[in-house]
């Protein structure tokens, strides 16, 4: 288990000196965590980010940790303070941010990128770079944190982060209904998650137990052990308003209100506008001119 300690005066980050030396400035290199999200590049030198919790500021609801810290360990440490992070509960902190895919709580918790306040990463030149800051008044320049989220390590390797935390709910319960999700939503106030497989609807409610029970009764929901198993073959997005078009189909679980579909079938073919491809290519070249970071990883069609 990582060590939790109070922030030392003048210290705001994990020491990345050794990590930067390992990344270096020459030759192709890839970064690995727990390999729970894929993305490893075969035949390329592998480095790992630091692990462990540097400090927890429960009163300010922020935490500093190494990017290789397992999310499960971080959640366990924060739970002692009645808090948690808005990250998928598998893999590492850095892996979750690099992939940039929120879990099924996004409807209520928001996108995971909003939880990243500061990132200290190693650039393609082997230099340690700080992006963002723990408080808004200390932040200036471009919002590189949002650029790093979802970049899959192609513009820099995240080494340490400061994350925003949130309170653990007093109670949390999954429910189900045979009605369609839109009729169910009409009787709910701020559900954390609403899932639908074309036949049944699942709802996650959090808050005080009495409030949850009242909402569930009003919406005629039945308690259940948890959400449905999500198809792992493909995950793609579509406009939230278009999810009704899935009526009559099978093999999917849709996140209502978010527009994410987990499906047994490949995503519909889409064409990325040339202007978007050109923009991503320029950004990638700006941050990694030689293409040495995670070579072969495809981000919006840019390799």
Walk me through what this model shows.
With 303 residues, the chain is an alpha+beta fold. It folds into two domains: 17-167, Uridine Diphospho-n-acetylenolpyruvylglucosamine Reductase, domain 3 (2-Layer Sandwich); 171-263, no CATH class. Helices cover 20% and strands 24% of the residues. The protein contains eight helices and 16 strands. The strands form four sheets. It has a seven-stranded antiparallel β-sheet with strand order 13-10-12-11-15-16-14. A hairpin with a 4-residue loop joins strand 3 (53-57) and strand 4. The radius of gyration is 21 Å and the shape is globular. The model is unreliable at 1-11 (pLDDT under 50).
What are the main properties of this structure?
Uridine Diphospho-n-acetylenolpyruvylglucosamine Reductase, domain 3, 303 residues, 16 strands, globular, five-stranded antiparallel beta sheet, 8 helices
- List how many beta strands DSSP finds: 16
Sequence of secondary-structure elements? HEEEEHEHHEEHEEEHEEHEEEEH
CATH class of the largest domain equals Alpha Beta
Shape: globular
Number of domains: 2
Helix content: 10-25%
CATH architecture of the largest domain: 2-Layer Sandwich
- Uncertain runs are 1-11
Task: List the strand order in the largest sheet.
Answer: 13-10-12-11-15-16-14
């Amino acid at each position: 288990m990582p060590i939790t300690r109070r922030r030392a005066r003048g210290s705001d980050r994990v020491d990345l000196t050794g990590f930067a030396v390992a990344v270096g400035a020459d030759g192709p290199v890839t970064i690995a965590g727990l390999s729970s999200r894929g993305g490893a590049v075969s035949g390329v030198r592998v480095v790992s980010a630091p692990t462990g919790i540097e400090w927890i500021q429960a009163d300010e609801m922020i935490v500093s940790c190494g990017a290789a810290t397992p999310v499960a360990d971080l959640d366990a440490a924060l739970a002692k303070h009645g808090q948690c992070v808005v990250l998928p509960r598998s893999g590492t902190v850095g892996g979750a941010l690099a992939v940039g895919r929120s879990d099924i709580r996004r409807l209520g918790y928001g996108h995971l990128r909003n939880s990243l306040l500061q990132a200290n990463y190693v650039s393609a030149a082997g230099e340690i770079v700080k992006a963002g800051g723990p408080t808004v008044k200390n932040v200036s320049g471009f919002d590189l944190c949002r650029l790093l989220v979802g970049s899959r390590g192609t513009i820099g390797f995240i080494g340490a982060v400061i994350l925003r935390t949130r309170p653990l709910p007093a109670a949390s319960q999954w429910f189900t209904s045979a009605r369609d999700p839109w009729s169910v939503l009409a009787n709910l106030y701020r559900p954390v998650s609403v899932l639908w497989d074309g036949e049944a609807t699942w709802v996650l409610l959090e808050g005080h137990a009495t409030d949850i029970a009242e909402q569930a009764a009003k919406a005629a929901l039945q308690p259940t052990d948890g959400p449905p198993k999500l198809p792992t073959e493909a995950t793609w997005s579509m406009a939230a308003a278009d999810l009704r078009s899935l009526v009559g189909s099978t093999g999917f679980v849709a996140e209502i209100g978010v527009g994410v579909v987990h499906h047994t079938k490949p995503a519909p073919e889409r064409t990325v506008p040339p202007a978007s491809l050109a923009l991503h290519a320029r950004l990638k070249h700006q941050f990694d001119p030689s293409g040495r970071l995670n070579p072969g990883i495809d981000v919006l069609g840019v390799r």
